[in-house]
Amino acid sequence: MVMKVGGGLLGKKIVKTYPPRGDTQLVRLAAVAPFTCARCDQTKTAKLVAARGDALYCNGCYGRMEASAPQPVADAQPPAPEAEDLARVVVGELDSGLPHSVVNTGLTVEWKFHVRAEHLLHGTCPVPAEMAGRAAPQEPLDLTFLRGRRRIRILDEQKGIRLDANGTEPVLTGLTWQSFVLPGTRVSVRWDTWRKLRLAYTPLDEPVVFGGTVVRYAYDPRIMTRELAAFDARVDRVEELVLIALRELGYLDEKGRALLPQEALVRNTVERAQPSERPAEKKIHGAIERLLSRRILTWEQGSINRAAMLHYPARRGETPVPLLCYAPVLRVAEREDLRDDPSTGYGVSAHRVAGHLMRIGHLGKDASPEAAAAYREDHARAGLAGPHELPRGFTYVREHERGM
After folding, report:
1. Cβ(391)–Cβ(357) below 8 Å
2. Which of 18-27, 101-110, 189-198 has maximum average pLDDT?
């Protein structure tokens, strides 16, 4: 998609665009913004950013890419991908959880972000540079959580929130997130009077069930697929390992579908399993066939470019590749999913949250012995085959009710 002046990227306004070169376009932002270059893997802070789909590149790498790109040949067909290339495709990272849509009026600073597992585990909230540069780290802040769109309701008020600007990105610390907040929930934040903070959740028109969990607030389905690893189907252990690898490592589209070449899925399933339960490739292929036969997985068509970057849908001029696709079941919540709570004065219902896995390995965290024991017990009670051990890199949240 061609970007235009006046649009936004990395939470900044685009003030100048350059002609696209193939599927890559260079733009100039109104202010510097931090990002990680997909080519050199370095953290950059700049106004010039090149974008190719979800991947961002620094100006230096953009120039080197253009200089090394071969001239197109009429009617040339892209080469068939090698198995090793497909086993090690590069998947662009999803929403980083950093602030975006930042508006600074001088008296207020507003921004949006999507909650990540890191925020829930550490009690933090990301803040933009526009706030970090003006707030005093030593001054405690008051915070109000709001629910509403047509009718605003105060959910909670907290005091003593502080700004921590010592890390890679500035964050607010000391928050206690409400129990209903899931990874992927969208939050709108407003900071005014240099002290008061307001965090607001936007209710959906109708609650939905996403991958087995009731969701009531606006969310990013990609983050829920990646970090809220609840399963839609009863599966055996090898099938479970396949689905975990696909959901955690696959390319994610806007609907939360996870896609990966079969070669990459097999390799990662083997490499990421604990040594005591590492399945043979033959068993993994069998699990994939069973998941395909039950339509839990389907085949889709994607493509990879010269840098082995995976894209979906397939892009013109790139090498086409077949992709295994996991699409989380999404449906409108039915009456049995929701049990009305007459004690609420706002027509808000309590609801069941299915037991689910939440990814924490990338945060350097390990699941507690209690979480491992709960998973082992629930896994066995459900009658699932295979070892009843909590997958590495995940913690487990038991089925419970949440009132809002």
Report:
1. yes
2. 101-110
Is the CB of residue 384 less than 8 Å from the CB of residue 238?
A: no
pTM recorded for the entire structure: 0.66
Contact call for residues 203 and 306 (beta carbons, < 8 A): no
Q: How confident is the model at residue 197 (pLDDT cuts 50, 70, 90)?
A: very high
pLDDT at position 293: 94
- Dist CA 153 CA 404 (whole Å): 11
What is the radius of gyration, based on Cα positions, of the chain?
Answer: 23
* Residue listed under structure tokens 């017990």: 377
Tokens of 177: 């997130």
Nearest to 113, CA basis, from 126, 132, 103, 129: 126
Enter the tokens of residue 38: 């997909």
Q: What residue has token string 């005591």?
A: 276
Q: What is the dihedral of CA 192, 159, 228, 327, to 10 degrees?
A: -20
Q: Kindly state the DSSP code that residue 330 receives in the 8-state scheme.
A: E
Q: Which residue has the tokens 């209903």?
A: 180
pLDDT tens per residue across span 256-271: 999 999 999 999 999 8
Q: 10 Å Cβ neighbour count for 179? A: 12
- What DSSP string runs through 89-150? -B------S--EEEEE-SSEEEEEEE--HHHHHHTEEE--HHHHTTS-TTS-EEEEEEE-SS
- CB contact set of 125 (below 8 Å; sequence gap of 6+): 113, 119, 171, 172, 175, 187, 189, 199
CB-based contacts of 354: which residues, under 8 Å, 6+ apart?
Answer: 212, 213, 230, 399
Nearest of 279, 276, 403, 290 to residue 350 by alpha carbon = 403
pLDDT at 138: 77
- DSSP alpha helices (H): ranges in 262-387? 262-272, 281-293, 369-381
Q: In what order do the strands lie in the sheet with 356-359?
A: 228-229, 356-359, 394-397
Residue with tokens 């909590």: 390
Mean confidence (pLDDT) of the chain: 80
Q: Which residues contact residue 166 at a Cβ distance below 8 angstroms, ignoring those fewer than 6 apart?
A: none
